[in-house]
Design goal:
DUF3501 family protein; five-stranded antiparallel β-sheet; four-stranded antiparallel β-sheet; DUF3501; globular; alpha+beta
Amino acid sequence: MPIARENLMTLEAYSKIRKSSAPEFISHRKLRTVHLGDHINVQFEDEVTMRRQIQEMLHIEKIFDEEGIQAEIDTYAALVPDGTNWKATLLIEYPDLHERKRELARLIGVEDRMFVEVEGHERIYAIADEDLERENAEKTSAVHFLRFEFGKAARAAVRAGAHVKLGCDHTNYPARTNIAPETLASLAGDLQ
């Protein structure tokens, strides 16, 4: 179901279930997060995560007018997979400020070197930051938005249970990991 103003909760209704629904949402978010090495987390988005993000923004910003609600929907709805892809938020995490500054300078272009590898198929490289540029000549951003676009055969393979790896082949952050079966089961539901 696409995210539309009519199927969002009112601020009052969301406020009533916000705390009680948090553990279930955190569990869902955790299921769809893949850690790549020590400093990159990839959070695969879906309708549930984006609906919660919109509800949170409306709650925090106290947005209740139609125009403001639609602006939030327009901002986040693009991150909901459409059946041929996985969409994700890439987080580069270095707790120490100086280390983060140094590493973000070393990791320029990392978002374009992210890939998924479906068993028996070519690597699928991320299409990054389609909304706006998130790096400059000095550094990359700590947050990027990725889209992995699957061909029909790769989609069918994932849905049939093929193993999938998430990786990065950036010179300064070479890493690969198997996507856990339970995570992959959730992500397979994003593909038609």
